[in-house]
């Protein structure tokens, strides 16, 4: 596919990396804020469309060699950073905002930064909630809800996600 066609299909992307993204299926981009994409982004938008949103003043940054599967929704209302060599499974939701308060006494920030480290694998049907950092090389098991920080080199799972075990990751090893 020619870069001209990709730019048309990705109407609204702020920056391209060195290599144009690889797209299959439907990808919706709602951009008022900033979206930055590294090289070799691969998105599968079928059988379910993928959606990227960056609201006014927000920043969504996606690193190099990232794979995003079908049905993923990523919405930045403040800031979301996705590292290099990250794999995101189908039907996963990553939202940095709760969009509304729980009750009149709730004075917490609605939007809080999300950071997903390098070489992370997020399984199918996961939910990543506002304010979470997922450490490098970690794995989030399918159907998990991540509401607290995840350290480096661990497998987490459940709702809410808890550490299942530590992972042995050799220096320089990249998830294929």
UniProtKB/TrEMBL annotation:
Pfam families: Hexapep
InterPro entries for this protein: Hexapep, Hexapeptide_acetyltransf, Trimer_LpxA-like_sf
UniProt keywords, alphabetically: Transferase
Cellular component aspect of the GO annotation: cytosol
Gene3D superfamilies from the UniProt entry: Hexapeptide repeat proteins (2.160.10.10)
GO MF terms, alphabetically ordered: O-acyltransferase activity
Assigned protein family: Belongs to the transferase hexapeptide repeat family.
Name of this protein: Maltose O-acetyltransferase
Organism: Paenibacillus prosopidis
């Amino acid at each position: 596919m020619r870069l001209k066609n990709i730019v048309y299909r990705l109407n609204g992307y702020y920056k391209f990396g060195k290599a144009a993204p690889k797209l299959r299926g439907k990808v919706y981009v709602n951009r008022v804020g900033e979206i930055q994409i590294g090289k070799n982004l691969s998105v599968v938008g079928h059988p379910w469309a993928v959606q990227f949103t960056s609201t006014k003043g927000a920043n969504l940054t996606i690193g190099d060699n990232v794979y995003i599967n079908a049905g993923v929704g990523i919405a930045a209302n403040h800031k979301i950073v996705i590292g290099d060599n990250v794999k995101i499974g189908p039907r996963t939701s990553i939202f940095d905002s709760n969009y509304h308060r729980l009750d009149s006494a709730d004075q917490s920030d609605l939007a809080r930064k999300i950071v997903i480290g390098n070489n992370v694998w997020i399984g199918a049907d996961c939910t990543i909630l506002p304010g979470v950092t997922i450490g490098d090389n970690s794995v989030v098991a399918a159907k998990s809800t991540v509401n607290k920080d995840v350290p480096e080199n661990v497998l987490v799972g459940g709702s809410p996600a808890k550490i299942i075990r530590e992972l042995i990751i050799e220096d320089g090893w990249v998830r294929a």
